[in-house]
Amino acid sequence: MEETMSPRRLPTYLVAVACMGVTGCGEQLAYPDSIHLANFQTLSSGHEEGGEFCRDFNLTSEQAEWFFSRAKLMDARQLYERFDHLPCWVRGAARSNRGIWQWEIRAGGTARVVSPEGKAELFGCDECDAVLTGAGNSAQ
């Protein structure tokens, strides 16, 4: 079962994620509990069985950061109802003041972020087709 952040923590987290990739947000936000992800690294890409059609799906570190700057926190039902679950994925890591976070972005516009403590959060991005389809190499 996926764990979620407490309501007290959630707004600060969303502000931090929404701020990533926007000019002027390179510094730590002024919230004591904020989580500011930085230093994105793309570590691997691949696909599940049956996903040979997407073997070219790949994202740069900058594109991953761009994706998360626009993605919204969602629950599993919201992702299921609004997005396609595609077998193509890119995995990587980002750093915060709490440690290393693992992330995975899928070609259908969904993502998963796992905190250093092992808590997983799900994200969806309606505005990210530019980087997900390969047309967004300049979308950063």
Question: What report would you give on this structure?
Answer:
By secondary structure, the chain is of the alpha+beta class. It has one domain. It has four helices and six strands. The protein has a six-stranded antiparallel β-sheet with strand order 1-3-4-5-6-2, with helices on both faces. It is globular, with a radius of gyration of 14 Å. The N terminus and C terminus are likely disordered. This is Lipoprotein.
How would you summarize the topology of this molecule?
Blueprint: H1 10-19, E1 38-47, H2 61-70, E2 72-74, H3 76-82, E3 88-96, E4 99-106, E5 110-114, E6 120-124, H4 129-132
Antiparallel strand pairs: 1-3, 2-6, 3-4, 4-5, 5-6
Protein name: Lipoprotein
Organism: Methylomonas subterranea
CA distance, first residue to last residue: 33 Å
The Cα radius of gyration reads: 14 Å
How many E-type strands? Answer: 6
**Mean pLDDT, nearest integer?**
77
Protein name: Lipoprotein
Summarize the structure.
The protein has 4 helices and 6 strands; from the N terminus they run H-E-H-E-H-E-E-E-E-H. The protein has 140 residues and is α+β, with helices and mostly antiparallel strands.
